[in-house]
């Protein structure tokens, strides 16, 4: 059954176009009703990133939740992982993050967490969709049972302390010069504070949000600004968060970008040596580089692959006993600490390894040589281009071209009308030709 509102990571779209006040109100009402558990006073925590539209959506959702009798605790600008953590910590029945992650400011979204801090599964999302499209008027609360709303001023400090406690006890970051790019997003207050309290010298960029500049030429999706600043200041490391701070990219002291695959390799190696891996392997998606898989095999570790989306990585981790997983894009899930990707906590784990090994980041993080991997996107307006016969034939021919040593991954995006074509293998020319052939066929079918 196709879902109407939810994609791979909550509900997302153009603010005041797809994500309207009316929809936000209905999502609040429907989700509040779906999570009624007994007669106790139900509570929901709501965080957001720094988009202008966050105010509109936040207050619409407050109206929705209070209208079905839920009390609302407003966190203000707060990373997605902080919302998940505080949902559990504050014994709330629900958590909400208002964010479109790495998208431009014009978009926004709604991510939902259950009382355990985990994102909702497909079945619960379908139940909520059914309620959204139904008549909820008869189920609204009577006047004496309406909910209340209040702001939680201590939320920042709670998350900073939580993040710091994920570092080894008594370890300091003193002596490290760090350039931190907050993407003008949700982590612009808490991330610099945590690093500074741990003793680092912190130079912050992307920390002046104005409602419009989230992810604009900064953050993990636009690392060039951070690369230039690391080189200019001769910093030891650069850290780039995305708009809601649930993913991270690292820049080493030479200005080279370290992606999520290399980060997972570093943490896997460290945790293996310390006996901290709960299973002999990690979980990643179909987009992770073959080089990571081969590197892990050399350590005696497996790489389980899932569909794209940190929720699917986490689902596999929970079902099979893994405590480390993530995505090449920088979503790193460390289930010993949290229930979703956490850019700051992942960065702290890397910094702990750097301090312990007392080596430059470039040496610590270059675990393997990535295989040539090419990703191209094809935008389409309607239809199902991947089902067209010429596209099917092109895909099969590309697989034959790459052979058994290569991989071809083709998937529609879960957040925008785009088809992603990725291939990798030992021969860059073959990889490029395979991708171009498929992209050409999809482009013609999508025209």
Sum this structure up briefly.
With 447 residues, the protein is α/β, with parallel strands linked by helices. Helix content is 37%, strand content 20%.
Overview of the molecule:
There is one protein chain. The protein is α/β, with parallel strands linked by helices and 447 residues long. 37% of the residues lie in helices and 20% in strands. The longest helix is centred in the C-terminal third of the chain and has 19 residues, at 428-446. The protein is globular, with a radius of gyration of 22 Å. The mean pLDDT is 95.
Shape descriptor: globular
How helical, in percent, are the residues? 25-40%
Q: Main sheet, how many strands, which sense, barrel?
A: 6 strands, mixed
* Beginning-to-end CA distance, first to last residue: 27 Å
Give the uncertain stretches in residue-range form. Answer: none
Strand-pairing-aware structural class: alpha/beta
Given the structure, what is the number of helices? 14
- Enumerate the strands of the largest sheet in spatial order, edge to edge or round the barrel: 1-5-4-2-3-6
- Portion in strands: 15-25%
Mean pLDDT: 95
Strand tally: 18
């Amino acid at each position: 059954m196709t879902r109407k509102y939810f994609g791979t990571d909550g509900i997302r779209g153009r603010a005041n176009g797809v994500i309207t006040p009316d929809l936000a109100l209905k999502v609040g009402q429907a989700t509040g009703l779906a999570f009624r558990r007994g007669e106790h006073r139900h509570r929901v925590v709501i965080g957001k990133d720094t988009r202008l539209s966050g105010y509109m959506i936040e207050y619409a959702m407050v109206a929705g939740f209070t209208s079905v009798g839920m009390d609302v605790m407003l966190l203000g600008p707060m990373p997605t992982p902080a919302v998940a953590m505080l949902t559990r910590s504050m014994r709330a029945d629900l958590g909400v993050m208002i964010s479109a992650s790495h998208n431009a400011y014009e978009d926004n979204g709604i991510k939902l967490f259950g009382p355990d801090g985990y994102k909702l599964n497909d079945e619960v999302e379908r139940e909520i969709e059914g309620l959204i499209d139904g008549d909820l008027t008869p189920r609204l609360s009577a006047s004496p049972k309406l909910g209340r709303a209040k702001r939680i001023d201590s939320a920042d400090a709670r998350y900073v302390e939580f993040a710091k406690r994920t570092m080894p006890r008594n370890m300091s970051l003193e002596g490290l010069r760090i350039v931190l790019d907050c993407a003008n997003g949700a982590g612009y207050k808490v991330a610099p504070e945590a690093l500074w309290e741990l003793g680092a010298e912190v130079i912050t960029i992307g920390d002046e949000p104005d409602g419009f500049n989230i992810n604009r030429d900064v953050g993990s999706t636009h690392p060039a600004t951070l690369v230039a600043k690391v080189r200019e200041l001769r910093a030891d490391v650069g850290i780039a968060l995305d708009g809601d701070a649930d993913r991270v990219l690292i820049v080493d002291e030479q200005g080279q970008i370290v992606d999520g695959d290399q980060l997972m390799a570093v943490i896997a190696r460290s945790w293996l040596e310390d006996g901290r891996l709960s299973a002999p392997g990690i979980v990643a998606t179909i987009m992770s580089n073959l080089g990571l898989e081969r590197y892990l095999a050399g350590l005696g570790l497996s790489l389980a692959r899932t569909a794209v989306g940190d929720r699917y990585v986490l689902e596999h981790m929970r079902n099979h006993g893994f405590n480390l997983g993530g995505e090449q894009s920088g979503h790193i899930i460390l289930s010993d600490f949290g229930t979703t990707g956490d850019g700051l906590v992942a960065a702290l784990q890397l910094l702990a390894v750097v301090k312990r090994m007392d080596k430059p980041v470039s040496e610590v993080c270059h675990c393997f040589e990535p295989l040539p991997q090419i990703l191209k996107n094809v935008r389409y307006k309607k239809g199902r281009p991947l089902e067209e016969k010429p596209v099917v034939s092109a895909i099969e021919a590309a697989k034959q071209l790459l052979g058994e040593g290569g991989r071809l991954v083709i998937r529609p995006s879960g957040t925008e009308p785009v088809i992603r074509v990725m291939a990798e293998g030992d021969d860059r020319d073959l990889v490029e030709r395979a991708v171009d052939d498929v992209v050409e066929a999809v482009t013609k079918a999508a025209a």
